[in-house]
Specification:
Blueprint: E1 13-19, H1 26-35, E2 39-47, H2 53-58, E3 65-70, H3 76-86, E4 91-94, H4 106-114, E5 120-124, H5 137-154, E6 166-169, H6 170-173, H7 185-195, E7 200-204, H8 220-232, H9 235-245, H10 257-271, H11 275-285, E8 292-296, H12 302-307, E9 313-318, H13 321-331, E10 337-341, H14 344-348, E11 353-359, H15 368-376, E12 379-390, H16 398-402, H17 411-419, E13 424-431, H18 433-445, H19 453-473, E14 481-487
Parallel strand pairs: 1-2, 1-4, 2-3, 5-7, 8-9, 8-11, 9-10, 11-12
Antiparallel strand pairs: 4-6, 5-6, 12-14, 13-14
Helix pairs in contact: 5-7, 5-8, 7-8, 11-19
Length: 489
């Protein structure tokens, strides 16, 4: 076997290190990474650690270290998604925060990339005679079984799909939408590399595996999820979609503000006539509203009209210049409605409110944690924060990207995120079970725009009255959206 070794050159590698409760090893691993001559930057993404890992990471004294804190534990895939977006060096590699993988082997993994032979390189624990710790037989069997299943669906001949050491040209990894939040990242990214026909190489690496007592976190449930992801992201499955509906567009981040703004204007116009749907949302929100209301992301003012109907004082803010013009034209003569062009930080502006309302807004904000902290600080004691957000990462589609969505949420994660700001969740529920199914079929599977005027009209007139009564009697187990209310006690 010929091993291509990287030629010495200036630092060229962004090392993305996801970590969760790795206080015992984070410092030593970081020092090993920083000792490599190839390391241009170390991006540590702390995924809600509770054992002091974040504090230890913040204490690392090296200008190449950047620490990103996710307030709640979301999973390895979610941490990598954030880290990849922050990478700036020509090449990017994943480094776990334990001692299983040796950063001194960066030069081996980088070799085919620097030689211009590869776009992606995997470090295989099974390909070479490099040393490895002897541990679990069935774990090794499981790894090889998953790799074999992945190869069957991707038509690749990898020996170690589940390896941590995956290195990419930066523009390659940043061209992907990473959808999996946990260990499903491994088969997902492998399938997307195969789908994109990127040049993929493997090199042999050493491996010092650890036991579960020593902190290993992956379990049998992750293996089941990996099998699902192998099928879910299969290039064969994607080719069937392309045959039916054309090749999809993918990107690592939402559309630019200008593109998203144009798409949002069209979407808002189609939703302006959905009076039944707007009334449904307002009916859920009304019991929690006070008399001094901040509405962040007022759109065209459809919901603003309802908020101010009983004489409440409403500050309606918008970031879109087109929407601000429409709001000013619509409410210019209303003494109890103030329209402002502002982002979240500018919207709070030192004032406190009885109620703060965000309808389909939080998902457009890149740093949703910081935004929620700012909003929590703008509530009066006993005040309420009301959120309406899209549900389920599994429903994230190219349409979500085009309208500027960074994410979709689950109730558990959203509640944890909100409560990490000091607020207390008083209600959180999925809404619109039919909409979730329709979104999956139209936006996710058929890659069509789900919010055309005709579709919105049919949904509003036919389905909303029935759904509103049905979901008032019994909350659905899933839905297109989440309605969440939190209070400052």
């Amino acid at each position: 076997m010929v091993v291509v070794v990287a030629e010495p050159r200036s630092a060229c590698l962004s090392v993305v290190m996801p970590c969760y409760n790795e206080a015992a090893t984070i410092v030593e691993v970081a020092h090993r990474v920083l000792a490599s001559p190839f390391t241009a930057e170390l991006i540590i993404v702390d995924d809600g650690s509770t054992d002091g890992t974040l504090s230890l990471a913040n204490d690392l004294d090296d200008p190449r270290v950047r620490v990103i804190a996710q307030q709640i534990n979301q999973g390895k895939g979610a941490a990598l998604r954030r880290g990849f977006a922050e990478a700036t060096a020509p090449f990017v590699i994943v480094q776990d925060a334990d001692l299983e993988y040796d950063p001194s082997e960066f030069e081996v993994v980088l070799g085919p990339l620097l030689a211009g032979q590869a776009d992606v390189v995997y470090g295989s624990r099974f390909q070479a005679d490099r040393p490895h710790r002897v541990l679990y037989y069935w774990h090794a069997v499981g790894n090889r079984a998953l790799t074999t299943a992945s190869n069957m669906f991707t038509n690749l001949n990898l020996t170690d799909m589940e390896t941590c050491y995956k290195a990419f040209r930066r523009e390659v990894i940043q061209s992907f939408v990473i959808e999996e939040d946990r260990f499903g990242f491994e088969p997902e990214i492998t399938a997307k590399v195969a789908r994109g026909k990127w040049r993929l190489w493997e090199v042999g690496i050493s491996y010092a595996g650890r036991t579960y007592d020593e902190g290993k976190k992956i379990g049998w449930r992750d293996g089941v999820r990996a099998m699902y992801c192998i099928v879910r992201y299969s290039p064969f499955r994607e080719r069937m979609h392309e045959h039916r509906v054309g090749k999809p567009r993918v990107a690592a981040t939402p559309a630019s503000f200008g593109e998203a703004d144009r798409e949002l204007v069209a979407t808002l116009e189609s939703l302006d006539g959905a009076q039944g749907y707007t009334s449904w949302i307002f009916g859920l929100a009304q019991p929690y509203l006070g008399q001094e209301i901040l509405e962040v992301g007022a759109g065209h003012g459809t919901f603003t009209e309802l908020l101010a109907a009983d004489g409440a004082d409403v500050v309606a803010t918008e970031l879109s210049p087109q929407s601000v013009e429409r709001l000013q034209a619509r409410f210019g003569g209303r003494s109890n409605i103030q329209v402002r062009h502002a982002d979240v930080a500018e919207a709070v502006n030192g004032k406190r409110y009885d109620s703060i309302v965000l309808i389909n807004v939080l998902e457009h904000i890149e740093d949703d944690t910081m935004a929620l902290k700012q909003l929590a600080g703008a509530l009066k004691p006993g005040g309420r924060l009301l959120l309406w957000v899209p549900a389920f990462a599994e429903l994230y589609s190219d349409f979500d990207r085009r309208v500027g969505h960074y994410r979709r949420y689950r109730i558990k994660g959203l509640n944890q995120l909100v409560e990490s700001t000091g607020l207390t969740v008083v209600e959180s529920r999925y809404v619109n079970i039919v909409g979730a199914v329709a979104w999956w079929i139209l936006a996710k599977e058929l890659r069509k725009v789900p919010t055309t005027a005709g579709r919105v009209k049919v949904f509003d007139r036919v389905f909303v009255p029935v759904l509103r009564r049905m979901e008032a009697a019994r909350r659905p187990p899933f839905g297109q959206s989440i309605f969440c209310v939190a209070t400052l006690q």
